[in-house]
Amino acid sequence: MIPGDPPPYLYRGPSILARFIFFTLLSLLLLFVDGRYQHLEKLRTGIAAALYPLQQLAHWPRVAAQEIGVYFANKTALEKQNTELSLSLLEQSRLVQEAQTVRQENAQLKTLLQLKAQSSRNTHTAEMLYDTRDPFVQKITVDKGQTQGIIEGSAVLDAYGVIGQVTHVSLFTSEVTLLVEKNHTTPVQIERTGMRSVLYGMGAGASLELRFVSPTVDVRPGDRLVTSGLESVYPPGLAVATVTAINNETEQSFAQITAAPVAGVTSSRYLLIVDALEPPSSAPLPSAPPGKGKPSRKKGAS
Amino acid sequence: MKTASPHRFRGPSLQPVNPDLLLPPPQPWFITVTLLVALLIDLIPLSDAFMPWRPEFVALTLLYWCTWAPRFVGVSVGFLLGLVMDVANGSLLGQHALAYTLLAFGADYFRRRVVSFPMWQQMVFVALLLELCVLVVFLIRMMSGGALPGMVYFIVPPVSALLWPLLQFLLRWQQRHAALSEH
Question: DSSP states of A111-179 as a string?
């Protein structure tokens, strides 16, 4: 009386146990290959492309809710927001003008010194689609992908600073690994002193850690950390984090420095993607994009 | 519809029969649609506060069909759905695939017993099986050096199991419909 049981005299293909063992081994193989190498990116891209229409459909309720929210938004609140935005626009345009003058000056000085001019990078604006549901990874998915020219390894910013890095590009979407992902590394320097180091993510809810800084180095709470641009992945000078606490009295040879990200790492919706320079194909392992998101690939960052 | 249910013409049983066992078999199109809808619900973005609490609709639907339609849904479907979930979640490829393979196998192994369980026992069984899946994923992540998830992560399976009666009611819609139109 069990529904769906076929009569025993019909051949049902390989037994359920055989199939179970086969797919278990296949899963373990996938886990191993995906953890160690990057051969499965094509498979991932393929599945992601097939999933895209469903994702768009799933995104619809939130879009609708937002539109309803806008419709019923309070007039005074909107007016207030409008004033704030105009003021900040004024301030920003002043800064942009200043920056243009400085950039020209800088270019002239660099030609005088015969330094290699810094190539400007393409940027794309993107919108966050959703947080990944996996509680183990700190990643978000954004609505731009291969077809919009997003490159793997690009820096992702919000209005205040770096929030992370593009770690996988599908046809229409990209995955961004956030700064706070455990063992995600960002090459930074202390803005005040120019001292270079590496910033490590420590997982959700934890602050960032600045490592490999000797206890005698001049660091103070409140120091801004900016990208150093050393790995030619991030452009130099983007704000990343502020130092929150320093502990010099450790037994280890490095100081314990914690920092908090300046950007709204988990809360920003509108993002700016700054293209990475294409790394040379013959690059040795250490120059691969830092901390490729998955902790098991950390041998690339060591 | 009449030819496809071999168990309906056996001799009379002295036990009262669970009327659900007498429903005509589910149609493949309905199974496909429900799995897609479950996937769709799992993909809907929620705010950070609700995100960790979301029941695992894909796992539940898979478990249901593995129990009640083992001819159409088995470990291979579980594996494929797991792969899709891995891509959707941006996690290591294979972790959900392994978990769902295990889930499908567990459901198939115990299905003869589970279909005659009363509802509360079925729900306990579902919670245990989902908890096992969660544990498998947890172990894989810990071995590959992931960050620790919150306690909510281990509370979601029993919460998901609370939806089992509702899910069972919804997923029998097509069969009930077919049974009614027969007469």
Answer: HHHTPPPPPP--EEEEEEEEE-S-TT--EEEES--GGGT--TT-EEE-SSSEEEEEEEE-SS-EEEEET
| Residue range B110-159, pLDDT digits in tens | 988 888 888 899 999 999 999 999 999 889 888 877 777 778 888 889 99
pLDDT at A289: 44
The pair of three-digit structure tokens given for residue A216, joined into one six-digit string? 């005698």
The tens digit of pLDDT for each residue in A179-215 reads 888 888 888 999 888 888 899 988 777 788 888 888 8
For A140, name the nearest residue in chain B, comparing CA atoms only: B90
| 8 Å CB contact of B108 and A16 | yes
Q: Which residues pair with A176 in a beta bridge?
A: A140, A166
In a domain, B68, yes or no: yes
Count of other CB atoms within 10 angstroms of residue B160: 24
Q: Which of A20, A129, A135 sits opposite B52 (nearest CB)?
A: A135
Q: Which chain B positions have a beta carbon within 8 Å of A19's beta carbon?
A: 74-76
Number of domains comprising chain B:
1
Q: Is residue B11 part of a domain?
A: no
Token look-up 């105009």 returns A86
Q: Which strand (E) or helix (H) includes residue B119? A: helix B119-143
CB contact under 8 A, A136 and B147: yes
Among 1.10.150.20, 2.60.40.60, 3.30.300.10, 2.40.10.340, name the CATH number for the domain at A122-277+286-302: 2.40.10.340
A295 touching chain B per CB within 8 A: yes
